[in-house]
Specification:
The structure holds two protein chains of two kinds. Chain A is an all-alpha fold. In chain A, 68% of the residues lie in helices and 0% in strands. Chain B is built from six helices and four strands. Chain B has a four-stranded antiparallel sheet. Classes of the chains: A mainly alpha, B alpha+beta. The interface between A and B is large, with 73 and 73 residues.
């Protein structure tokens, strides 16, 4: 195959090596640096940014109101009760943390696989991870009912002499999510240190020089420092890879360790992880497509990036589809009356609409159209699709949580679930919080790693000694 | 102790990484040892050229990870067996398979923190002041698009006039003297 399929003169392919190029070849060290640092160092905040920031801030305020009322009245303002005792809070928790996973996948796993196309999108994908974990981490805390006692989750030597119970997946969650948040922040921050050095050197006002100078820890680009830095990045990537796989696995244990039909299944860990990456890539697309347009970053976040992300979504989407298929298969093959009823009820019961929404948005629309290259590189379509998949993944968690719970073993204890306005306000509020944090990141921090882009430019190639004839 | 006044070294600027690597190799061959290169992104060949091959970040990370593992696993065991024994569905007090998950997470947590902060500590950062920032051209390019080779005054071969002449034979864009 290969050679005949490669179009001659294709600017996306290096004529010498046949490698795919991921950034526009016309870029130089200086132009890349200028393009990225100008976004942050300019004294003029774009009007579009201000408008969006205003809207996002207003939506985030809704969260503040909802949480304040929650703290005053208690979790009774939500729709959770028996039999559906886990509602929006857990759905949103799993959804948000899943979104975070793509950031780590891009920044860590693709780094280990030497996928250089990730260099342009790794930083803001990582930022997305952190802000998604911020939103996610809030939910279990406010769900516990008395969040001021949240410190009981940690093994602290308190005068009460009460210690956590380490056989519970809910406690494993505490360590998985807190480790994930910490390592993501460290990885993100370490990655930004050299770029802060660039900002320090390029800023023309004292305040920016001062702050970026401190954040850069005095980075001066010594190659000895760079070598340790590269080693540390690789090690962090190597550590973040098993971490990211473990986080959603542990979250799936929250469900899978219970004996409830619909939750008690061994397919959950892999299918949660695949679903997390699926929704995470969708969120990266939701963010990347408007960003590259607004800040004119088309030469660094190219169509090839969008195309590649579409392919990853196609692959993970099929793993998710396999998970759904296995659930249905096991409902029949296990010959368990309860499993079979649960599945029938999930698809055809009174809340069956949520299951079919999930099938349409998560499987039917993306998995049929993502095969087509024209659609994968069509920005408007991919943006639309990213919203569809995120909706679908939210419904997946809704289906798992609610439809497994609302009709349990005894018909006398059957119930239903209808979210209250406080549920909706909390969820929509976190969308506002996420967008607000992301906008602040775009305005004040380097959203594309300048040093990593410089590495993949053609001018970074070292010409051998003999060619230049040094003596 | 190095004197904190006078000359820190001589800084040669290069336009591209290949020239820098060639110059650094040459300087190393000519017997220079106290020198460093400064680049806007990692240039592995330059580190090789000045004889910097290995670093201790992996060791620090390994030690950190093992400490995290030991800390969490022993804490779980102590809490579950001695400090606060609970009967959970008749499971043994020392139910080690359940302890694996938090211990695994803490291995990664401590290893990751050791890798990140260990790297910075081994680099001697934070160091907000450095004599190189005094060089007129350093901050213009070292973090953007220029490549520097610095011969430090600590090297026994260093002589202000001679070394400057020597650096100029390596075809740099410019050579400047850096003061403390």
């Amino acid at each position: 195959m290969a050679t005949s399929e490669i179009r001659r003169g294709d600017p996306g392919i290096d004529p010498a090596t046949g490698e795919f190029r991921v950034v526009n070849q016309a870029e130089s060290f200086k132009s890349v640096t200028e393009k990225i640092s100008r976004i942050v160092l300019t004294p003029h905040t774009p009007l579009g940014w201000l408008a969006l920031f205003g809207i996002a801030g207003a939506v985030a305020t809704v969260l503040l109101v909802a949480v304040t009322w929650l703290f005053l009245k208690g979790v009774g303002i939500w729709a959770i009760t028996q039999p559906v005792a886990w509602g929006f809070a857990i759905i949103n928790f799993v959804w948000w943390i899943g979104i975070g996973h793509a950031g780590t996948l891009i920044s860590a796993i693709l780094l280990l696989f030497k996928q250089t196309w990730r260099n342009s999108i790794s930083r803001f994908a990582e930022a997305m991870t952190i802000f998604a974990v911020v939103c996610a981490g809030m939910f279990p805390l406010i769900h516990v009912g008395r969040p001021w006692l949240g410190y009981w989750l940690f093994p602290l030597p308190l005068t009460m002499n009460v210690w956590p119970q380490f056989r519970s997946p809910l406690l494993w969650d505490v360590f998985a999510v807190s480790t994930y948040a910490t390592i993501s922040v460290v990885f993100w921050y370490i990655g930004m240190i050299p770029d802060f050095g660039t900002f320090r050197d390029r800023a023309d006002n004292k305040v920016a020089q001062y702050f970026y100078g401190i954040f850069s820890w005095g980075w001066r680009g010594s190659v000895k420092h760079w070598m340790r830095y590269e080693t540390a990045s690789l090690l962090l990537a190597g550590l973040a890879t098993p971490l990211v796989l473990s986080v959603h696995t542990v979250i799936s244990f929250d469900f899978a360790v219970a004996v409830l039909p619909g939750w008690h299944t061994t397919i959950f860990p892999p299918y949660f992880v695949a679903g997390a990456i699926y929704s995470g890539f969708a969120m990266v697309l939701t963010l990347a497509i408007p960003l590259r347009k607004f800040y004119h970053l088309e030469s660094m976040v190219t169509e090839r990036h969008i195309d590649n992300m579409g392919k990853v979504m196609l692959a993970t989407g099929f793993i998710v589809a396999y998970g759904y298929g296995m659930e249905a298969f096991m409902a029949w093959y296990s010959a368990s009356h309860w499993e079979a009823f649960m599945f029938w009820n999930r698809a055809f019961g009174p809340m069956g609409w949520s299951y079919w929404t999930l099938i349409i948005t998560n499987l039917a629309i993306p998995l049929t159209t993502l095969w087509i290259r024209k659609l994968r590189t069509n920005l408007a379509y991919m943006f639309f699709l990213s919203i569809v998949v995120n909706t679908g993944m939210w419904f997946e968690r809704f289906v798992i949580v609610v439809t497994s719970l609302y009709r349990d073993f005894l018909p006398s204890s059957w119930g239903t679930y209808r979210a209250t306005k406080w549920d909706y306000m909390t969820f929509i509020g976190t969308l506002g919080l996420f967008t607000t944090l992301f906008l602040l990141f775009v305005r004040f921090l380097p959203m594309i790693p300048m040093n990593e882009i410089r590495m993949i430019l053609p001018s970074a190639k070292i010409k051998p000694k003999a060619a230049a004839g040094a003596d | 102790m190095p004197s904190r006044e006078g000359t820190y070294g001589l800084l040669a600027e290069f336009d591209n990484p290949s020239d820098l690597v060639r110059a650094a190799q040459q300087a190393r061959e000519d017997g220079w040892r106290r020198m460093d290169c400064y680049t806007p992104y990692p240039v592995e060949e330059a580190a090789e050229a000045i004889g910097f091959h290995r670093n201790r970040v992996p060791l620090v990370t390994l030690i950190g990870g093992l400490m995290g593992l030991a800390a969490m696993f022993s804490m779980e065991t102590w809490i579950s067996v001695i400090a606060y024994p609970l009967n959970i569905g008749g499971r043994p007090l020392y139910s080690w398979p359940a302890f694996v998950v938090p211990a695994y997470e803490w291995t990664i947590l401590w290893a990751g923190l050791s890798a990140g902060f260990g790297m910075l500590a081994l680099n001697g950062l934070p160091q907000l002041y450095h004599p190189l920032f005094n060089a007129p051209n350093f901050r213009n390019g070292a973090t953007t698009d220029k490549f520097f080779l610095c011969l430090e005054a600590m090297d026994p071969k260093f002589d202000l006039i001679e070394s400057k002449r020597y650096l100029e034979t390596l075809s740099p864009v410019s050579v400047v003297e850096v003061d403390y």
